[in-house]
Amino acid sequence: MAITGRIRTQIDWINVLTSEARLTDVVLTGDIAARYKLPTGSVRKALARLTGRGLLSRVTDDVYANKLVRDIAAADFTRVLRPNSYISLESGLSHWGLSTQSSVALTCVTTGKPKEYRTPEFTIIFRTISKRLYWGFIEKQTRYSKYAIAEPEKALLDWIYLTLQSGLKPSLDEIEFKPIDKQKLSKYVAKYPGTVRNTLMHSLAFEHFAA
């Protein structure tokens, strides 16, 4: 499709996006440039124009959501944006049925820098967690790719930990503890600072659980 040399390259970008939509909802500048043997700068300009035409949503300068995909999954973008990350916190609690509060944004933790990404289709929030607490997640499959999500117990502890780190008090009376594995929670909480365990121990929900 690409013609090298001095002849101007002619690309049918609608066909490109249609072909990509069969494989993924994530459009990466580098991947498109390599696949169609195009200069990266030219691809960036083309993707910016396609965004202006409403065919793409910009996530970053080099990451776009393909709007030719009917159901774009925010989870597909998590590891693209932050390779060392997994879904947790409010989104993890909601996924596992620990909370009835649904988060508007997809909340994740990462060992990298915190960041928020917004498009008309989704918002992804990354919060930083230390490398020693980067564990306790499993992989799940979307239509196009795999993503990582915290186990129920880990999502709860991450949420308590980062809520406390923000100077706030976790509302544990709103948490449904039935889906929680008691032994796993006791094992996992031992790896967190004492403030996290103390918060659990002082909640009525955890008193029932620790009995």
Q: How many structural domains does the protein architecture include?
A: 2
Q: How do the strands line up in the largest sheet? A: 4-5-7-6
Q: Largest sheet at a glance?
A: 4 strands, mixed
Order of helices and strands: HEHHEEHEHEEEEEHHHH
Portion in beta strands: 15-25%
Radius of gyration, Cα only, in angstroms?
A: 21 Å
The class by helix and strand makeup works out as: alpha+beta
Measured as a percent range, the helix fraction is 25-40%
Shape: elongated
Low-confidence stretches: 1-8
The tally of helices reads: 9
Tell me what the structure shows.
The chain has 211 residues and is of the alpha+beta class. It has 2 domains: 13-66, Arc Repressor Mutant, subunit A (Orthogonal Bundle), CATH 1.10.10; 75-206, no CATH class. It contains 9 helices and 9 strands. The chain has helices at 13-21, 29-35, 40-52, 75-81, 89-95, 152-165, 182-189, 194-201, 204-210, and strands spanning 26-28, 56-60, 63-66, 85-87, 106-110, 115-118, 123-128, 137-141, 146-150. It has a 4-stranded mixed β-sheet with strand order 4-5-7-6, sandwiched between helices. It has a 3-stranded antiparallel β-sheet with strand order 1-3-2, with helices on both faces. A two-stranded antiparallel sheet has the order 8-9. β6 and β7 form a beta hairpin. The longest helix is centred in the last third of the chain and has 14 residues, at 152-165.
